[in-house]
Amino acid sequence: MQNTATLQARLDELLRIAKSNERKQDNFQQYELALLNSGSLHELFSIILDQHKERFQLTEVTLLLYDPEYELRRLVETKTGKHSWRNRLLFTETSQFISQYFSPQQKPRLVTFSAHQHTFLFPDHDQLGSVALLPLIRQNQLIGSLNLGSRNPSRFQSNIGTQFLSHLAAVVSACIENARLHEHIKLVGLRDPLTGINNRRFFDQRLQEEVSRAKRFHTPLSCLFIDLDHFKRVNDNYGHQAGDAVLKQVSELLNDRLRNTDVLARYGGEEFVILLSHTHSKDAAEIGEQIRERVDAAEFTIPSGKTIHVTLSIGLATMTKEGNIHDENALVAAADQAVYAAKLSGRNKLMQARDATD
């Protein structure tokens, strides 16, 4: 009877372990599907840095990425709003900084937490018990490190579960690279190939967002419509390459003056447009005048080595709670009419929409 009871206890224990492993496998499969189905880089980071910690009951999860050209950082910064995971998303410009945490074989490392060695990877936790550092590799290149931390000293022990963690690292690596490429393709589709600034398609998307936000919070939104004066003469006298050079240099001057929240785009040809959020007409006019004066004072170098002088005309319109402009079409149309009035009145000046109406 005792042998039978012992055998039954062993079977019950094996069954319990089997069910536990089945739950763990199901949990990981759901997590893996969430990673693979993520629709954007931001969603992917949220899954890795927030859901991972909750799903697998960890104290901390951080992600260190190799970003020598600041590409990933720019992609993250293109989205407004704060994210709980921002402080746990880390970057480095040197691959050696990541490789110092791994052996030449670039295998997962499961070790006791060391404040001296791991402070950078876990900036907000200095009393962890054990950590797992997972190398993220794509095309035999180390692109980052997924870092898991637990207060339990025995949670991560050397050579325990490394096969599972290696699989996890491979999935995360592939998802990050795919999301980066996807975001890059989207970004390229919203960029003007000549000047490198936003194109009309991007502007139209942001215009709707900014108008909606301005209405919701009753904040002013100003639009500067910019047109280079006599630009056809530049192309006719010096060639289209000279015109392209001027457009590039003008876009740089425009971009240098703006805040991170402002939107600059090439609207078409020699036309540019700028959205100034939370900006009344008086402040927008000052910004526009500064832009106009900077361009007027600049000398633009063309491929022949010669420098030429160009000017621009600016139309300004502002949408406010009390005003007559109520949607995106009216805002751009008013700024467009104002720049037309500036052209008729002599060029190289800024006109506000109410001036054009008068």
UniProtKB/TrEMBL annotation:
Its cofactor is Mg(2+). Residues 219-355 form the GGDEF domain. It catalyses: 2 GTP = 3',3'-c-di-GMP + 2 diphosphate. GO terms for cellular component: plasma membrane. GO terms for biological process: cell adhesion involved in single-species biofilm formation; negative regulation of bacterial-type flagellum-dependent cell motility. Its EC number is 2.7.7.65. It comes from the Bacteria. CDD domains: GGDEF. GO terms for molecular function: diguanylate cyclase activity. PANTHER family: DIGUANYLATE CYCLASE DGCM-RELATED, REGULATORY COMPONENTS OF SENSORY TRANSDUCTION SYSTEM. This is diguanylate cyclase. It comes from Methylophaga thiooxydans.
